[in-house]
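During the reporting period, our protein records have gained a C-alpha cell line. A sample record is set out beneath this paragraph:
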Amino acid sequence: MDFIISLHLNKLTNVLICFSLGDLIMKETLIFLLITFFSISIHAEQNYTIDENATFRESTDELVNAREITINTETHPGIALYRDNCAICHDGTVKKAPALNWIELLTPPALLRAMNQGIMSEQASHLSEEERILIVEYLMKQKREYFPKDAELNYCKAENRSFDITQSPEPYNWGYDTSRFIPKESGGIDSKNISKLKLKWAFGFPYAHRARSQPLFAMDSIFVGSQSGDVFALDIESGCIKWNFSASGEVRTGIVMDEWDNGKNPDKRPYIYFGDILANTYALDAQTGELIWKIKVDDHSNATQTGTPARFENILFIPISGLEVIPAFNVEYECCTFRGGLLAVEARTGKTLWKQYSIPLPGKYSGMTSIGTRMFGPSGAPIWNSPNIDKKRRYVYVGTGENYSTPADDSSDAIIAFNIDTGKEVWRKQTLAGDAWNLACMAKNNPNCPKENGPDLDYSASSISVNLGDKDILIAGQKSGSVYGLDPDTGKILWSNALSNGGTQGGVHFGMAAEGKTLYVPINDMANTYDGKVYKDLKPGVHSLDAETGKILWSKINPNSCGGIKSCDPGVSAAVTAIPGAVIAGHLDGVIRAYDKDNGNIIWSYNALKDFESVSGVPASGGGFSGSGPAIRNGYMAVNSGYGIYDHMPGNVLLLFSIE
C-alpha cells in the first residue's frame, strides 16, 4: 500500500512525501520519518527571478541618502579632516560611538550643533569653523551652498503657549495599543463623517526630506519628532510652535506620554518619551520641553531606535534595532556583531529594569569571505516594531528581522514573548528559517552577502492582540506577505494566510490595524528594489481578514497610477489606522485613502503630492507615506507625508485635517 502525505506550509511551501509501506521495515521507521518531517523549519519558496540585466546597487548612497551629491568624496579636503579627527571613533569599532553610516544620516545643522556646542564640542574644539564645515560637506557629500537654509520658525505668542493638562493622551495607537483602532468617542471620526475631513494646516519640517515620527494628541497640542532631531509641541488651532527640543539625531519613533484620568489634573508633571537614530532614548517635561533624562539603550555603534517605545504602568519598553546591514556593503567590513534587543526601564527615571537580546549569545568568528574579510555570527534579528503589551498575561511581544550574517539561527523572522516583570523569555516562534541578509546582497557578487542570501523578510510591523470573546489570538504580519494567527500563551500557529509573495520591500511593513475581529493588512510589494530581483504576483494595497480564521473578507489591489513619477509606488508601507467602519491607509504614491470596512470601497482620499502653504515658516511638500500612520483625536487627523529614503518619494510635511 502506498501512502502520500501532502502539506501546504504557510501557503509558501508545498511539501509532498511519497513512500511505500513495503519499503519500511519497522513502524518505528515511519514514526521517525514523520517526527523528522514535522520538525523541519519553514523555509520560503523563492518568490522572484533574477534579471542579470536589471539595475543592481553600486553603492548605498542613493538608497539611504535622498540628496544630490555635489562633491568628489575622494578628493574633497574634508576626507582628511574626518580621517584624522573622527574616523578613529566612528569606524564602527568603538562602543557607543555612532558608525559613519549613521552620521551620514544626520542633517548639517545637527552635525554642526554636535561639534559646536553638543556632545562632540570637546573633541572638535581644536578645529576652526571652516574645518568643521569641510567635515560636514564630506559627510553630506554636498557643498555648503546646497545645505538647507537656516529656518525661521513660527513660534506661538506667549498667550498661546499654555497647555490643557486635563487632556490626557488616549491609550490607542503605538505606545499604548498596537491594534491602532481609534473609537469614535476618542477620535470623533468614523466612516459616516470622514467625507467631511478637510485640510486645516500643513507644517513643514525644517532640514527634512522625510517625515515619519507618529504624532501624539494630548494637552490640546500635538507632539511630533522630525528628521532634524527636533521634537515639537504644536498648537492644534494654528500649528504654531509652543516649544521645540533638539535631540542628537533624527527622531523616527512616535511620541509617548504618561497617562492619567482624562478630564482631571495629573498627579505628576507629564513626561513624553521617544528615541533617536543614534540609539538614545529621552524623557522630556511635556509642558516645557526640558530634558528629564537621556540614556543610550545599546552600546553597539550600529544600534538605533525606530519602533515607538511602549508605556505600561511605570515601565517603558524600548525596542532596539540596528542597521549594520549598511556598512556590510563594504567588502572590507567585518560583518556582523549587532543583536536586536528589548530594554525595560523605569519611565520616570530611565533606570534599567531588565534587558534581553533577540539573539541570546554574542556572535562568534565564523570564517573568512572570499577576499579574506573576517565574518562573525549569528547577528541581526533587529526589533523594528513597537512592543505589544498583553496586560492579561503580563507578556510583551516583539517581532524580529533577518539575521545579518551566516549562520542564520532561530532568532530571525520570529515573534518573541517576554515576561513583563522579569524579562524572561516565555516563548519564540520563528515563521521563516534560514533568512540571513545585508545590503551586500543587493550588489553583484559582493562577498559580504551571507550564503543564505536572504530573502530579508522581517517582522517590521507590531503584532496585534485580538479578543475573540472566549479566547484571545495574537496576529502577526510579515514582509513575506503572510499573516499568522498565534496562540498568545504558546506561540503555536493557529492559522496562516499568504496574501502576497512579499519581498525585500514587500508584504507587511510598518503596521496593521484591527476593529474587533476585522483585521486590516496593508501590503507594500514594491516592484523594483534595484537588486536584480523581479518579484512575482504583486498585490500592493489593503486586505481585510477575519482575525479568528484568517479568511479574506476583501482585497483591494491599488492600481499603479504613478505615471512615471520617480520613486512612486502603489503599495502601502506606512502603518494603517482603523476607525469605526473604515481603515485609513497612506500609500507610497502620495495618496491617503479610507477604505470601507464592509466592502473595501474608497470612501475618502487626499493627494499629498503637492507643495503646501506652511504654518511653520519652512516650505512644505508632500511625498510618499511610510513609517507612521494617522493619529486621530477629537475630530482631527494628523499624518506625515514624505519618505526620502529607500527609493521613496521625499517630503517634509505634517498634515492636520479636521471635520468640517
Q: What stands out?
A: The first strand starts at residue 2 and ends at 9. The chain has three domains: 2-40, 61-146, 158-659. Helices lie at 27-38, 61-64, 78-85, 87-90, 100-103, 108-116, 129-140, 184-187.
